[in-house]
Design goal:
mainly alpha; elongated
C-alpha cells in the first residue's frame, strides 16, 4: 500500500484481481504488448523512412482479433504487398510465418 499509494481496500481489490479473479490478465497483456512492439519494430526496419505510425496502427486494427503470431504474419505480408521491394523482415519462428534463419546460415 505504501509503495503505490493505494488505500487498503483498493490494494486488497488489486491483489485479489491479479491473484484470484484474473490471474492471467497481466501476463497476457504484457505478452501481447511485447509482441506488438516487436512487430512495430520489424515494420519500421522493413519500411525505413516510409514507415507511418498511423498507417501501421490502422493496418493492425484492420486485421481484427488474431493471435499474435497470425497478426504478425498478416501485417508483414500486407506490408510486403503494399511496398514492393521492401526488405522482408522475417516473422518470428513461432508466429506461423516465415522461419528465421539461424545465426551464421545463409538464406
Amino acid at each position: 500500500m505504501r509503495e503505490v499509494a493505494l488505500s487498503e481496500p483498493m490494494a486488497q481489490q488489486e491483489a485479489d484481481r491479479y491473484a484470484f479473479v484474473e490471474p492471467g490478465q497481466a501476463v497476457s497483456y504484457l505478452y501481447g504488448y511485447s509482441r506488438l512492439r516487436e512487430l512495430r519494430l520489424k515494420a519500421e526496419i522493413a519500411l525505413g523512412p516510409r514507415f507511418d505510425q498511423r498507417q501501421f496502427h490502422d493496418l493492425v486494427i484492420a486485421q481484427g482479433l488474431l493471435p499474435p503470431g497470425l497478426l504478425e504474419r498478416a501485417v508483414l505480408e500486407e506490408l510486403t504487398r503494399r511496398y514492393p521491394g521492401t526488405a522482408r523482415v522475417r516473422a518470428s519462428p513461432d508466429s506461423g510465418g516465415s522461419q528465421s534463419t539461424k545465426a551464421g546460415q545463409d538464406q
